[in-house]
Amino acid sequence: MTPNAASASSGPSRRSFLASTAVATAAVAGGMPLLAACGGSDSGSRDGTTSGKDAKKILPTFVANNVVTPDIPSKNGSSVGFTGKLDLAGLKTSVPKKLGKGAKVTVMSPFWGSPPKGGNPYYTAMNALTGVDVVWQNQDGNTYDQKLGAVLASSDVPDVVVVPGWNMGGKIPSAILSKFADLGPYLSGDAVKDYPNLAAIPTDAWQRSIFGGKLRGLPMPSSYVTNIVPFYRKDLFDKAGYTVPKTTEEFVALAKEITNAKAKVWACGDMKWTAFNSFGVPSGGEKPLGWIVQDGKLVNRIELDAYLEALEWSRKLFDAGYVHPDFKLGKSQAIDPSTKFAAGEFLIYNTDISSWYGQQASQATQNPGFQIWGMDIFGTGGSDPVIYATQPANIFAFVNKKASESVIRDVLAVANATAAPYGTKEYMLTNYGVEGTHYAVKDGVPVKNDKGNQEVANAFVMIASPASTIAHPDLPDVARGQVEWQQRMGAFTKKSAFYGMQITEPSRWTNLSNDFEQLEDDIVRGRKKISDMQAAVSDWKKKGGDQLRDWYQKLLDENGTAAS
Fold it and tell me: Which keywords label this protein (predicted)?
């Protein structure tokens, strides 16, 4: 097995298309000022949300796609899983006729790495499949927010623009409302049945695609369950006889047992993200998820005692010397830990679930004894963990408001193909390219060649995706492990007050929480104190936090809570 052997996954693990752990982590941790509106005008209200009966009128009818049956069905909000070998002759057809009418469609999208030249065999084959002449305007994913802002501020906007949630800062939310088309006339209610693969996208993901009171976005669905996994070296655990911890207290004791600085072995990386899940702190990456109702009052994550306790626990690991020194250098998400984790310099770290497959695949030939595995998120003080659900979509493709109906329908024709489920001909072409040109199937495992790795990346998957899926025919045990981990963690997962709602915060409060992530990292590393966070929270309240709470409370009163 080689690192480029095909792995299929959508949802959080679809982020394996990103070029590095740092970028994948940005996708997880990068915050976004979420938006939508109650207003019905084309420009949209500048703040609010759309839910309940108003949303129901807008949402597409859900029609399950029964073209392919997964080996592991979704449970507790998990992805579906496939563990069998791939039979190209047995692939199903989910798009029986070409829906596109031949329009030329320009697409701007983030790209990590060197974009392929236009007219390559992959682009040509996808255009032939969909009947649409898609022309790509790929932009550097690392600086995409800058390019996005400039393009949306101009009068020259491409037909389709992909906007990841972590790039929705500054004036981007307002631009989404004013620059992009309402897809409701083509997709709302039973209209979506013209596009069966889009009809099979989960309703929650469509709910997140309502911007400015209109269905504007084509979503990339995510798993309901957190995508941050505490990984460990199972091979080294088994060899040393270590027991996987079931509480935060057991974790600290284990960290002490593992750490031997003289031998250059440390227990772990920065465990802050896992600590938040262990102590029951809502996600901070996607802003409305940071609010919960506690004792009848709307409370932000930064006001919770559990928030400070999670930071204090994470800090103790640093203070005791159990954290690998590399993580002291800066933010955990700025570090690619894979090499030193593979070398056994530390045995535990947390990152995106896609690393489960990525690390195992990359080590298969050079370190055959290597085994990465995900430990269950542990609770504290004898309690179960309280895990908050991730947003059901956080990457969207938008269609230019000036696009003609024929162009919009051709974009939807492309999206219907790219949203095809795993196990179909359309999925294989979208994700792996042309057999013989971009990949070969060896013992039921599709393996991309160099041309496949160069051309079949970062492109059509961004327009729309199927429900969250995990499939690794080369490493079926990893696929099963990922899905079953999500299923177990899903049992402890709950929705925060504004789960699934697309919300526009008034601009005067948009940057109110900007400095908190840096302060978190400084506290965990000992550069700041817990009292500094308490002071920052007090400051936050005075500068608008309490007013923002009142604003969210009004939304809650009008729309109800998604929490369950």
Answer: Signal, Transport
Query: In one letter, which amino acid is 397?
Result: A
Residue 62 has pLDDT above 80, yes or no: yes
- With b for 16 or more beta-carbon neighbours within 10 A and e for fewer, the 440-449 pattern comes to ebeeebbbbe
CB atoms closer than 10 angstroms to residue 203: 15
Q: Residues with Cβ < 8 Å from 226, sequence gap 6 or more? A: 277, 283, 377, 387, 388, 389, 390, 489, 493
Structure-block tokens of residue 314: 């994470």
Are 163 and 398 in contact by the 8 Å Cβ rule? The answer is yes
**Lowest mean pLDDT segment, chosen from 337-351, 468-482, 499-513:** 499-513
Joined together, the tokens standing for residue 384 give 């179960």
Which SS3 state, helix, strand or coil, does residue 33 take? coil
Structure tokens at 563: 């929490």
Using a CB cutoff of 8 Å and minimum separation of 24, what contacts does 70-74 make?
70/422, 70/469, 72/479, 72/480, 72/483, 72/484, 74/467
Between 123 and 15, the more confident residue is: 123
Instruction: Give the separation between CA 126 and CA 147, rounded to whole angstroms.
Output: 26
**Dist CA 61 CA 281 (whole Å):** 34
Q: Over the stretch 423-475, which tens digit does the pLDDT of each residue have?
A: 999 999 999 999 999 999 998 999 999 999 999 988 999 999 999 999 999 99
CA distance 422 to 72: 13
- Is residue 201 within 8 Å of residue 464, measured between CB atoms? yes
